[in-house]
Specification:
The relative contact order is 0.21. This protein has eight helices and four strands, in the order βααβαβααβααα. The model has no long low-confidence stretch (mean pLDDT 93). The radius of gyration is 21 Å and the shape is elongated. It has 207 residues and is of the alpha+beta class. The chain has a domain of 144 residues: Gyrase A, domain 2, CATH 3.30.1360. The structure holds flavin-adenine dinucleotide (FAD). The site of flavin-adenine dinucleotide (FAD) has 9 residues, from helix 6.
Length: 207
């Protein structure tokens, strides 16, 4: 049975540059002054040709923004390492974590689930204790776990998304960031297939 405090990961595309692929193609064709060859809506391939020759800068002209909820601070800590990505994240200085939600690790065996939930309950009590003793949120948070959920909005251009989604959907990536990035990749591949057609992560879930 799902515990009431156990979080569920959601990924939502908030915004994307309108006519993403047209913008990228118009930027790219500026280099060759080949506007006479602008693709129709249905034609694909120009952007993939740029990518194959390493001419990636036209992809920087289009941006996508996602909101991710129900993910752990362990996951966001990895995501925010991407320096060319813009980030706004729920603050544990300003948002009270009383009764926090948390992520259950995918590898947690069923027989230990109750014990895990009990540990989270204990930590919830520790946080409340320090808040009741007058500690500010920014100090009481020191006892919170990596499992604690966070909400984060991330924006990047398509060149950087290609980089992030390649390395974070690899089987070497940690399962939670991989899960979020597989969803983002699926969304972006639908919106702008020519930008992501060559990124095909392996199916097997990593441990
Ligand atoms: C499987 C995996 C395991 C990892 N394990 C660890 C770990 O144990 N410990 C740890 O600390 N980190 C770890 N990381 C994080 C990793 O080292 C990077 O910090 C993170 O993936 C951010 O990506 P990035 O540096 O490629 O680039 P981003 O910040 O996304 O930048 C994009 C690209 O811009 C260029 N760039 C950006 N900044 C610079 C710069 N200052 N100089 C030169 N080029 C730059 C690079 O080409 C870079 O690839 C891991 C990542 C993965 C995918």
């Amino acid at each position: 049975m799902k515990h009431s405090k156990a979080a569920h990961l959601t990924v939502e595309l908030i915004a994307i540059t309108p006519d993403t692929e047209k913008v990228i193609e118009q930027a790219g064709r500026t280099c060759y002054l080949s506007f006479d060859k602008l693709s129709g809506d249905s034609e694909a391939g120009f952007i993939q040709r740029l990518i194959k020759m390493g001419h990636d800068s036209p992809l920087e002209h289009a941006i996508a923004t996602f909101r991710i909820k129900g993910c752990s601070r362990a996951m966001t800590h990895q995501l925010v390492r991407h320096r060319l990505m813009s980030v706004c994240q729920q603050s544990q200085r300003y948002v009270d974590e009383k009764g926090f939600e948390y992520v259950v690790p995918e590898g947690m065996p069923d027989e230990f689930l109750d014990d895990y939930h009990n540990d989270m309950k204990t930590i919830e009590g520790m946080y409340e204790k320090w808040r009741n003793r007058g500690l500010r949120k920014e100090d009481a948070r020191f006892v919170l776990p990596n499992a604690c959920t966070s909400e984060i909005v991330v924006s990047a251009n398509m060149r950087e998304w290609r980089h992030i989604l390649t390395i974070r959907t690899s089987l070497k990536a940690q399962w939670e960031i991989r899960k979020a990035c597989l969803t983002m990749l699926e969304i972006l591949r639908e919106k702008c297939p020519d930008c992501f057609a060559d990124i095909r992560p392996a199916e097997k879930q990593c441990q």
